[in-house]
Amino acid sequence: MLRVALALVLSLMLGLTAQAQTTPDRSATGGAQTLADILARQRGEPVDDTAMRNDTGNSEDVAGAAQLGPLGGTSDPEVWRAIRYGSAETRVSAGGEVASVLVQDGGMKWLSWRDGPLRTYGGWLLLGTLGALVLFYLLRGRIRIDEEMTGRTVTRFKAVERFGHWLLAGSFVLLGLTGLVSLFGRVFIAPYLGREVNATLLNASKWIHNNVAWAFIIGLVMIFVMWVVHNIPNRSDITWLRQFGGIIGKDHPPAKKFNAGQKMIFWSVIVFGTSIAISGVSLLFPYELPLFAKTFAILNDLGLPGLVGMEPLPVLLSPQEEMQFAQGWHAIMAFVLMAIILAHIYIGSVGMEGAYDAMGTGEVDEAWAHQHHSIWLDEMKEAGNDAPQKAHPAE
Amino acid sequence: MKAMFTSFAAIIVIAVVASFGLERAGFSSEEVNAGASVRLGKDSQ
């Protein structure tokens, strides 16, 4: 399963296909590209360009090169090929390594991937998740509190815990929406509301996305520190998972402060959220924090691409390619986390009676706590934290 | 509910502070990636 996922993600990002490349016969063109090469490239198929890539001239081989012009024994086409394939020794007086890349055709590959598969698969993932949740609601309905409400409440989350949760949740919703506007604005807003509206929205989205990101990072750190202890897997999770957490059927398995489902959400948020945050910071400070060449080198050393039948990953990336990979990874992780969070929002609101109170007021009725977190309720009672309080109406 | 609204206010405060802070610290794309000979923003009008 992991292999399949890894292969899928890497293939998506690298735009690789499983088609084997064969060395074509280019004798008719003296080694230059043929019509078949051009047509294959236009069809988006991989073309073996090794011959062109290496045909960048060699002044030392040319007799009397020193007496020739500024290019020495290298012809114009050879110089341009070296620039186009990134092997030219380009020196610039300002702008550093970034400015020394004169032709970066990876940009087109990235753009067509962003405008094509990313929008298509990402969009359908979110719509599919929403559809599945609506279907689930129609089939299962709202998960009700079976026992009679006691009128006594117990503190489920302290104010600081709720603050951390909402800091993370509020910023994530803003980041998700502004990210979607940035990705889909040109196709879904500009044609209907006009380019001016789209441009204004994009400008605002950019400011919100870049600056609210810090609130997301602070929220992520807060919930990790506060809740990691409660999210370490234990034996009660197996029972919970075996009974599908009471979501399917009528059983309500015992659980501690967090059940196995909530632990999965927690670790998804931590893992995907951290990955989004790191790639996001890399994008916020362009070219300052390259992540991928080193990561690919480590993956190659571990032999992971080979395990899934792929060629070793590229380890020599231009600064621009680093940014393109960072954007691609950032978006993939964000789509996956958005889909997970949609399910989390559903179960915390319309999907389960009384669930919202836990994060709204922080107080839950003992009947709710007994049904969903019986071990935690017992622990709270033993610790003397169950002083009877007046129940708050659901907000 | 108080915790929720406080956190939403905090998001706004953090975003504004981040924007001004990074701008002042010279982290705007304009300052990092462009020189005096590049016309950007108000100067280009």
A few lines on this structure:
With 395 residues, chain A is mainly α. Chain A is 61% helix and 2% strand.
Overview of the structural elements:
- Chain A: Belongs to the formate dehydrogenase gamma subunit family.
- Chain A: It comes from Sulfitobacter mediterraneus.
- Chain A: Keywords: Cell membrane, Electron transport, Heme, Iron, Membrane, Metal-binding, Signal, Transmembrane, Transmembrane helix, Transport.
- Chain A: It is found in: Cell membrane.
- The complex is a heterodimer of chains A (about 400) and B (about 45).
- Chain A is mainly alpha-helical and about 400 residues long.
- In chain A, about 60% of the residues lie in helices and about 0% in strands.
- Chain A is built from 16 helices and 2 strands.
- The model of chain B has no long low-confidence stretch (mean pLDDT about 80).
- At the A-B interface, helix 7 and helix 8 of A face helix 1 and helix 2 of B.
N-to-C order of helices and strands of chain B: HH
Residue windows where pLDDT falls under 50 for at least 5 positions of chain B:
none
CA distance, first residue to last residue of chain A: 42 Å
Main β-sheet description of chain B = none
CA gyration radius of chain B, whole angstroms: 16 Å
Oligomer: heterodimer
The outline of chain B comes out as rod-shaped
Tell me how many strands of chain A there are: 2
Query: How many H/I helices of chain A?
Result: 16
> Which ranges of chain A are low-confidence, i.e. pLDDT below 50, for 5 or more consecutive residues?
16-20, 390-395
Q: Indicate the radius of gyration of chain A in whole angstroms.
A: 28 Å
User: Which chains make the largest contact?
Assistant: A-B, 29 and 19 residues
The shape of chain A is elongated
Given helix and strand content, the structural type of chain A is mainly alpha
